[in-house]
Amino acid sequence: QQQVKQSPQSLIVQKGGISIINCAYENTAFDYFPWYQQFPGKGPALLIAIRPDVSEKKEGRFTISFNKSAKQFSLHIMDSQPGDSATYFCAAPFYFGTGTSLTVIP
Amino acid sequence: DGGITQSPKYLFRKEGQNVTLSCEQNLNHDAMYWYRQDPGQGLRLIYYSQIVNDFQKGDIAEGYSVSREKKESFPLTVTSAQKNPTAFYLCASSLAPNYGYTFGSGTRLTVV
Hints:
The complex is a heterodimer.
Chain A: E1 4-7, E2 10-14, E3 19-25, E4 33-38, E5 45-50, E6 56-59, E7 62-67, E8 72-77, E9 86-92, E10 95-96, E11 100-105
Chain B: E1 4-7, E2 10-13, E3 19-25, E4 31-37, E5 43-51, E6 54-57, E7 64-66, E8 76-78, E9 87-94, E10 102-103, E11 107-111
Parallel strand pairs in B: 2-11
Antiparallel strand pairs in B: 1-3, 3-8, 4-5, 4-9, 5-6, 7-8, 9-10, 9-11
């Protein structure tokens, strides 16, 4: 059973637009929900994370929205830039989603 | 600078050989992890360790072995029992599983 399910698999956004990636988790004992950004040939890097005691966290252009009752969380990238083009992974302790390939068109 | 060092970056293995991937961290993290990344499948946990001399199997441990003799080091051996070892291998560390991971730059293993 997949512990963390991520969608969409790929996403194309115009420069300046909003990118939204969604994630659903299974285990209600999970207490930490990070997002990672990965460029080709590199290891993932922690982008932003949230704990279940808050519903939203914002860091610059990146926001996590968290819905504990629905067991879902999402990443919003505001004012998307070509440099944001990468693969994004949601995660919970030990488990990762399958990734979203984001392409931002100039 | 603190970080995780994985070596080698590229590794070629013949069928039937064991190979060992190196992972060293100087972040003073207690927990270390090995993940395998295949296209379209995300990152799958092979092994993790939360303390020296102790480690636990992840979802895909068959055909792999690890050791944790020092806090800084967590080498992964890919044995000949692993049927499909060609993949990108990532090592990570963190204060604990419910904290952010710091990843190494990965080792790409190819069976020839």
